[in-house]
Amino acid sequence: MRLLIPTLLLFPVTLLALEPATLVQVEAASLTPEVSTPPRAQMIDEVSGDDLQIPHEREEIARLQIFLDQQNFGPGVLDGKMGTFTKMAIEAYNKKFGRKDSQWDKVKVDSRQHVPNLYATAIVPEVAAKFVDTNFRWGNDREYQATRKDMPYRSVAEFMAERYHTTEDFLKLINGKKLIDNATARTAMRVPNVEP
After folding, report:
1. Which of 120, 136, 171, 177 is deepest in the core (most CB within 10 A)?
2. Distances from the Cα of 38 to the Cαs of 56, 107, 174, 192, in angstroms?
3. Is residue 156's pLDDT more than 90?
4. CA 95 to CA 104: how far, in whole Å?
5. Could you please report the per-residue DSSP string of 39-57?
6. DSSP secondary structure letter of residue 153
């Protein structure tokens, strides 16, 4: 594709020497810098400063799961692991478009096109405090549990994991253990790029 760019945008110094209608043809490819994809994402744990290394394969499966989730094909939990529900969602997606169940490459291509950003930044809402009780006695104490009117989340991480269709372990992988373990209301964290 060729772009026509007015000369006065490219060479403003020679403005008096050129007519306003003079155009220069420039290759679009020469305007965009080359970008290489790293083999895995490298992020920094905002609390500890540790380097977080996320395996490339996990990110590719997570991208696929996020895409299927956005398209309303339930891939199960968004954790970057190929499970039964993810396989079934891929097959259902292929069936919708008249493809063979085994055509996973086309689904991967679709996911790369529609999910350029794997992660979004979410802020733990203030309302999380109403639904999280770290002192709740889980286990077999049914008598105590019967006195409660709710079954709260055990942590802010568990609250956010369910909200974004993922697991606490995956949140720790993409954010760092310390950030997730110390999360409170108004903490910013990376989450899978889906609607809560």
Report:
1. 171
2. 8, 21, 16, 19
3. yes
4. 11
5. SSEEEE-TTT-PEEEE-HH
6. B
When pLDDT is cut at 50, 70 and 90, the band that residue 101 belongs to is confident
Alpha carbon distance 90, 71 (integer Å): 11
Q: Of 33, 39, 3, 7, whose CA–CA distance to 21 is shortest? A: 7
pLDDT at 33 over 80: no
pTM of the model: 0.69
* CA–CA distances in Å: residue 95 to residues 19, 29, 91, 112: 58, 37, 6, 19
Distance CA 51, CA 54 (A): 10
Q: Phi/psi of residue 92, each to 5°?
A: -65, -40
Helices 156-163 and 168-175: angle between axes, nearest 10 degrees: 100
Task: Say if residue 81's pLDDT is above 70.
Answer: yes
- Backbone φ and ψ for 84, nearest 5 degrees, come out as -60, -45
DSSP 117: -
What Rg do the C-alpha atoms of the chain give, in angstroms? 24
Q: Which residues have CB under 8 Å from 12's CB, separation 6+?
A: none
Is 70 exceeded by the pLDDT of residue 24? no
Spatial contact of 86 and 63, defined as CB atoms under 8 Å apart: no
